[in-house]
Amino acid sequence: MATNTAIIWSPEASQEQFIVYIDDAAEYEQWKQQPEGGKDIALSRFVGTFSVFKTATGVGHTGTLGEVSKQELQNTLFGGDKNKHVEDAIVLILTEGKPHKGDLSHSFKLTKNPGRGAGEVKGIGAQQGPHR
C-alpha cells in the first residue's frame, strides 16, 4: 500500500487549500521542531516535489490536482511580492500547514464499473487463454 503525506494549508478567509507532498514524515517533523532561521535540515531530504498543488476547484484537498503557478503563489500568499519564489511558498505551507496521510495507491487503478467486481477489468476473447 502506497501512503503519502500531504501538508495542507489554507490562507485566512479563503477556502483554497494549498498542498505540498513530502516523502519522509520523520524528517519533516525534525525540520519543523528546529527554530526559525536555524533550520539545518535541507528541504530536499523530505519534500517529494518542489511544487505547490491545489485542486481544480481550489476548494478542499480531494479531486484533480494541478500545480499552482508562481504568479498565483506570489499574489495569493505574499500579496504580490515579486521577490518570493516557490520555495518560499513551500516553507510557508510546511511551517503553518497540517499533515494529512492518505493511501494514493488507488490513483492508478482503472475502474470501469465498481458494481461489478470492485473495479476489476476482465479480458475477453484471446486474452483469456491460448489461441485455438
Automatic annotation (TrEMBL):
Residue span(s) of domain Ribosome maturation protein SDO1/SBDS N-terminal: 14-102
Chain intervals for the UniProt region annotation (Disordered): 99-132
InterPro entries registered for this protein in UniProt: Ribosome_mat_SBDS_N_sf (IPR036786), SDO1/SBDS_N (IPR019783)
Origin: domain of life: Eukaryota
Gene3D superfamilies, alphabetized: Ribosome maturation protein SBDS, N-terminal domain
UniProt-listed SUPFAM superfamilies: FYSH domain
Residue runs in coiled coils: none
Name recorded for this polypeptide: Ribosome maturation protein SDO1/SBDS N-terminal domain-containing protein
